[in-house]
Amino acid sequence: MAETQEPKGVPARPARNMGEPVPPIPEAEAAASDDASTVFSHFRTGLSRHRTGLSEHRTDLSEYRTDLSGHRTEMSMRRTGMSFQRTRMSADRTLMSEMRTALSLIGFGFTINQAFQKMQDAGSIQNVNAPRNFGVALLIFGIVLLAGGIVRHVQFATELRDRRKIMTEDGLIYSDSRFPISVTLVIAVCLLALALAAVLGIVFNLALLG
């Protein structure tokens, strides 16, 4: 059977104490009273030594548990530090979900406006104000949703960084890994600028996108 290897940094476990056998109970019924007292005194001394040995072993085990507790505390601090990274990635996923919803609204609004505009240019319909207004409304809803998601993401990320910094300075967690630049946030800002350009082009009839 292969021996189990202890992880690095884990304190060594104390050797198993098989314990000395308990001294046998002396038989001193037939002995004189003085001799019986001496015999039982030696017996009590033997029991006391036996209890002392067990007590020392319990002390070793207690120190071992204390060392393990410190090791578990360190592991817990590292897990807590990594949980900040998981929370940051969860915030990125939330922003991506808001981006998808906003992109759907922006895409529908722009498509509706362009479709009815082409139909008017072809002479199929005369008035496109209602569809145009509906498309612009969808665009604005998408922009508001995306802008709100960006503001919420920046606020949450700032609070998360500050809380992580405070806990690191207090020695409560390890923060070996740094927070990278959020690519999701960069794309969200670019999408917001593109949506604003589309709205300005529709409302003021400007060719901002070429």
TrEMBL record:
- Any idea where the DUF202 domain is? 86-156
* A Gene Ontology cellular-component term: endomembrane system
Span-the-membrane segments of this chain are 136-158, 179-208
- Report the locations given in the UniProt record: Endomembrane system
Principal cellular location given in the protein's record: membrane
Domain of life from the UniProt record: Bacteria
Q: How does it sit in the membrane?
A: Multi-pass membrane protein
**Ranges for region Disordered:** 1-34
A Pfam family annotated for this UniProt entry: DUF202
Q: Which UniProt keywords apply?
A: Membrane, Signal, Transmembrane, Transmembrane helix
- Put simply, this protein is called Uncharacterized membrane protein YidH (DUF202 family)
